[in-house]
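Please predict the structure of the following assembly.
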Amino acid sequence: MNLSAYFSLICQGIVMTFAAWICAGLFSLIIGTLLGILSCRRLATSWSSVIIRTYTFIAKGIPAYVQILIAYFVIPAALGLKIPAFLAAVGALVFCSSGYVTEIVRSGINTVSVGQWDACFVLGYSMPATLRRIILPQALKNIMPALFGEFEQLLKTTSLLATIGITELTRSGMNIISRELNPIPVYCMVACIYLIFSGVLQLVMIYIERKGLYGNNR
Amino acid sequence: MVIIDNITVQLQNKIILNNVSCKLSIGHITSFIGLSGAGKTTLLKSIVGLTKISDGSIMIADQELLQLSPLQRAQNVGYVFQNFNLFSHFTVLQNCIDPLLIVGMNYHDASTRARDILDQLQMLDFVDVYPSQLSGGQQQRVAIARSLCLQPKILLLDEPTASLDPINTDILVQILKKLAANGLTIGVSSQDMSFVSKIFDKVYFMQAGKIVEFCDSIEEIKNNVLISQFIVG
Amino acid sequence: MKKKLIGSMIALLMIGIVIYFFAQKSPSQDNSTFIVGTAAGYAPFVSVNASGEYEGFDIDVAHALANKLNKKLVIKDLGSMTSLFMALDQGMIDAIIWGISITQDRLAKVAMIHYYGSTVTSYPLIFWKTIPTDIQSLTDMNNKIVCIEPGSSQDVVLLQYPQIRTLQVDKIDDALLQIQYGKADAAFVEPAIAIKFKNKYPEIQAVDIPLALSNQVQGMGVVIKKNKEQLVHDVEQAIAVLKSAGTIEQFAQKWEIPS
């Protein structure tokens, strides 16, 4: 079995998967958190609420695969732009994942008691300070598992990038199989690599929990 | 010194406070008593700006409440919630220091001031403890300390004895008397007449959004029909 | 302080990744290039070798064609049939060279220039180890499970046999696993695939199933958008030259593509 001959190809696949995953994950975390804050019960205005809910409805309602095709073919054509495949793919992943993150963050913020907002008010906290120092830390503690779950799901979704030609890990594996006709060892190896990524993610989550960045449990 | 002039508070078409006027004097403890729904808490909330008034004016130390910036307001009026609303993810010390860090104080000075105040409230031993690990009375003292850290001239407490046992109530009474003696203006809303009589100084009796009685001497209370009924019945 | 450091490192990482991928040059679309869309992972037609280079029958054809057209070849990997046709339609690529079978259906929508393959009058039905007695036509496979790749010509043929239970696999190479482990009774594939499987696994047995006239495929063709008449003309001429010079036949033998 000469899988070792394909070592550099597999590495490229790993790098591609990892890059897409981390990029999409970070951007969707930022965007999702922003939108989650804007749509929480305490801060939402009627129009912001409508816009954000519409967005999450669309982002969660369309399959990621379709979003990727739209981002790569439909949107560039409509705008007359040429968008590189990686950017379009990550963009689609961010659009999709942010929808979920928004909902997670919003519900997390809504579970923080109203009294905390009131206490910040009487103590003269500005809104950014209220969110950053008091509300978000408490909300984050509650939603950590859900956020990690979404991030983990995102990892698996990256394999859809294969359909627009991006040579991420799964596709690299399929390429090798088509040449060598050895599906079992290749799929096993690919599965192991995904599991390693997942495992590292789990370890990060446990580390953050242990370190108790946000203090004691209620 | 707080002067409340003819304020009205309306929430969803219901009038909660109806043309209320009263005064909180420096160095005195002013209590607001009455049944639930009389408007006591709403009145206190209006003073600190948690509830918006639809009419009238509130003067905080000769300044219109509405013209104070949030920071100015926080440094003038402190508020202790009935359920304390301590920051659960911060230790006792961090709860007191954080509001000071917000106004730009450096950590060292903030820590010194916070420890000083916590010491006066006998909570210095608990600086690294989390609120969830404290008893009700201890949590309240932390809440008071947190408010006092900004050195407001006015301190309001909403139903402070609602979840306190008699021993902690007495401790609270001592604290409030000492603060008043040091020149703080204190406002309290309560249904606990035994507590009110212990801190007695000035009392406003409220009913259905209006102030119906005012007393500032013990003898007057005994002669006051409405209030006596309230104590007994 | 530590959090700020981590935060700025993450920001830098993100910016770095974005710049890196933006810096990847996308093929310019001018008259000096011939952009061919294809998809790796389909040996022996197109795959990526261990050094990361594209190779295969279709790749060789693409190189030769670009040479004849006096243009620079740019290979664009689109990953799947859907994406290839979408890219062609939007002008992202000039042509598709991916062993695409010439069928009446497709000719109605796009221009196809035959470059290899005689009319296929039968497709192989492959089995693992033993062929059940007396399988001569597709009706003999009624109530049995047959693997196909959705969207392929074989899929289209089987639509006319509703009593055959089809098992769809994402890539036809996966069909190997299905018949090996008894999840399917047989697989209905391209002749080239059958040869590829047989070469690696002697347990593969095949039966050739003759096709009705309307299902027959007239070889494989270069796919070009119908309105690009000049390009269609140029490619037709170039292919004709390559054929008469025997170049394409050489490629076919090199990659063991059945005629």
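The two ends of chain B are 33 Å apart (CA to CA). The beta strands of chain B are 2-11, 14-24, 29-33, 55-60, 63-64, 77-80, 154-158, 185-190, 202-207, 210-215.
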